[in-house]
Recover the amino acids of this structure.
């Protein structure tokens, strides 16, 4: 098996899902791939770049979606929630790459709905920060409430319903703000 950026990214994604973000290290990744840690740096310049590539891989389904901003942000939540620590990962990746999907299309979608250019850019930043923070918070709450015996995370129940309602309310407040439109 030849070492490649795609293999490195997929293996890092697998580690994220199995062990969580704190345990995705270059050393652990190298061990998983059966190479020296230095070999990774030929393909990936830093852990930050690696994590951004993992985030990009997770968000591939959103690259082709051309729907309204609210639906796109609901799809983001649906895509991320089942993936352990993806909220924390995407918060980091978005800080490093503000064009991370779906932020790469939101300004144009908002402008098409009548938002001014500056307002669309600021609304995109606000929506992305809200969405990623809300998803990370929900994932962390689920992790804290996981069954201590099985590690199974609750996905249903009053807390999950409340988290979804908060997310929907936040999206409506940010995307439905007529006073911010040009």
């Amino acid at each position: 098996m030849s070492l490649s950026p795609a293999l490195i990214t997929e293996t890092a994604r697998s580690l994220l899902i199995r062990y969580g973000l704190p345990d995705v290290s270059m050393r652990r990744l190298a061990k998983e791939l059966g190479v020296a840690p230095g070999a990774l740096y030929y393909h990936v310049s830093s852990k930050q770049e690696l994590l951004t590539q993992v985030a990009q891989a997770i968000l591939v389904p959103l690259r082709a979606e051309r729907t309204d901003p609210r639906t796109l942000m609901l799809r983001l939540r649906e895509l991320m929630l089942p993936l352990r620590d993806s909220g924390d990962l995407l918060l980091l990746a978005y800080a490093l790459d503000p064009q991370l999907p779906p932020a790469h299309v939101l300004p144009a979608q908002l402008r098409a709905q009548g938002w001014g250019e500056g307002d669309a850019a600021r609304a995109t930043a606000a929506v992305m920060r809200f969405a990623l923070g809300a998803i990370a918070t929900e994932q962390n709450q689920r992790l804290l409430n996981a069954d201590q015996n099985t590690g199974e995370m609750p996905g249903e129940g009053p807390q999950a319903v409340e988290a979804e309602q908060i997310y929907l309310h936040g999206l409506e407040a940010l995307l439905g703000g007529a006073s911010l439109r040009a």
Observations:
- The mean pLDDT is 89.
- The chain is about 65% helix and 0% strand.
